[in-house]
Backbone:
């Protein structure tokens, strides 16, 4: 039985060596970044929505920076990164949802839309310019100001997932 364990150990080690020494553009986080890409720059996301959440620009900008710093080995640079993000918040709105029989809303929906331009100077094919919209529904008996912070946190996380995944996860 010891011989079988030794062979299995060798096979596992060889497999790990092959996986770790492959082309180098894949990571365990799912990111597919070319080895030539070393830096990322993320411009401040301006708030151009008609309703302005005063901390939203900073929150989105810092969350995107944090995602790249924690899930890639890229260095953050102020400008002209190998990967570049530009964007603005174009919509921040709340709308009634799920109208009941007495014509009142059972739920309200907070929606945030962010317009993003992503430039990959190494692989232009992966560059994009698009808008991402995410929302969360909340009980209409609650004031938005009471639930806004937690809802915005959830929406921002989803928006960052969308921006990051479209830029570096090629599934």
Residues:
């Amino acid at each position: 039985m010891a011989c079988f364990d030794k062979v299995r150990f060798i096979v596992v080690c060889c497999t790990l060596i092959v996986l770790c020494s492959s082309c180098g553009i894949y990571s365990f986080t799912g990111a597919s970044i070319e080895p030539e890409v070393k830096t990322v720059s993320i411009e401040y996301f301006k708030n151009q929505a008609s309703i302005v959440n005063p901390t939203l620009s900073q929150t989105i900008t810092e969350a995107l920076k944090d995602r790249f710093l924690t899930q890639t080995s890229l260095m953050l640079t102020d400008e002209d990164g190998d990967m570049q993000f530009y964007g603005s918040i174009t919509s921040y709105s709340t709308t009634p949802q799920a109208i009941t029989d007495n014509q009142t809303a059972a739920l309200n929906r907070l929606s945030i839309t962010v317009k993003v331009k992503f430039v990959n100077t190494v692989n232009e094919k992966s560059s994009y310019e698009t808008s991402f919209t995410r929302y969360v529904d909340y009980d209409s008996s609650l004031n938005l100001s009471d639930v806004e912070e937690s809802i915005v946190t959830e929406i921002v996380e989803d928006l960052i997932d969308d921006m990051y995944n479209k830029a570096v996860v090629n599934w």
